[in-house]
Fold this protein.
Amino acid sequence: MARKPVQQRAKATVDAIVEAGFIAMAERGPAATTTRQIADIAGVGVGSLYEYFENKEEIFQVMSERFVADTIAMIQPLIPTIVRKPIKEAVLDLLGHFRDFLQANNERYLKCARYAMALDFEQHVEPLQKTLSELVTQYLMHHPETLKIRNIPTMSYIMINGGIYSVVRHLCDPAPPITFDELAGGLADMVSHYTEREMALVSP
Amino acid sequence: MARKPVQQRAKATVDAIVEAGFIAMAERGPAATTTRQIADIAGVGVGSLYEYFENKEEIFQVMSERFVADTIAMIQPLIPTIVRKPIKEAVLDLLGHFRDFLQANNERYLKCARYAMALDFEQHVEPLQKTLSELVTQYLMHHPETLKIRNIPTMSYIMINGGIYSVVRHLCDPAPPITFDELAGGLADMVSHYTEREMALVSP
DNA sequence: TAAATTTTCCGAATTGAATCCGAACAAGCG
DNA sequence: CGCTTGTTCGGATTCAATTCGGAAAATTTA
């Protein structure tokens, strides 16, 4: 950010700009949104954008950050509940919340996710990855029998990345080949079958 | 495309433009490549771009199409070999070829994949998805015992999408938390464990 | 072959969006 | 209230995308 807002009304301006960014992005997609549109929706002059953001790109970056932060904030309180459930239910529960979250507010975050997954990859999605790894760790600690499973970091990596992408892709698809429930069930089965098979292999 | 090239030299111009697009994209990423750069690299005037492409975006679209077509062309001849292998080897084999393909030519296609996965989703990646579904179908026919597995379309969807994304993401990451071999092995295990567990459940 | 026609190429001119900037307006503070 | 600092703004500027009309090359026609 080019400059920090110190007064209250300046903070409100920054918020209005980011909010306008979400609205414009949800309406027309990131490529088609102009600085003029964002300024108009926010009810500020175009010049004001550049008081707090280096350029248009940075507005999207901040939106991306907020998206990831909000996702994490959505997941954190679920952790204590989720870690106590059987694996399949746990996955279904998490995915259901994730879908609702992405679709809220005219799919604001779904459109943002599509953008964020393309450009930033490491930079912004990484904290989310860390949170989910944390969730996996806690889950394992609540189910000590699963600690025998090999390659846990690798499997986390695959399921977290593959899971997020599959869900975002599916929700963006106007004519998906399978239903969301099938997708969620499939991901849950994938995890639970893998777990069960590993446990069978390790302690026969 | 705005107009079809009919003469030979015009076809060469179109090729040079697309080729230049790949080079420019690999160097600076899609956002930072200008029409001037593409024209300079291709050795043509800026005006020539617009003889055969509606706009800059369409150049990227054609690149995307070529990327997907080349990916399919890379996979097709592998199918007869792959379908005869045990599941784990089959997955490892496919992933190895996919990685080499993405990394060839200064990672030209890896950078393209990153872009294609963001924007086009359905439109361009879909033929690839269809080819891979085909591969799965053929694999199942060569291993009749696996036909009992439930939810095959769902599992294909998850493994194809999740697999492609995980690999692209991993190869783009300058400091990945796991090695590529671990990732590939993990995906292979994921598939094979799921298969084994399903077979055990269905015919105990 | 030469003229006529079609195709291709080009780069200066146009357009429009992104960004800059300095004047005008508000807020905090002695 | 003067003074300083923070904020807003929109016209001016910059730069990339796109257009356009004419020249050059290829092809066809006579």
User: Anything to note?
Assistant: Chain B has a mean pLDDT of 93. Chain B touches chain A through 39 residues (CB under 8 Å). Residues 1-54 of chain B form a domain with the Arc Repressor Mutant, subunit A fold (CATH 1.10.10.60).
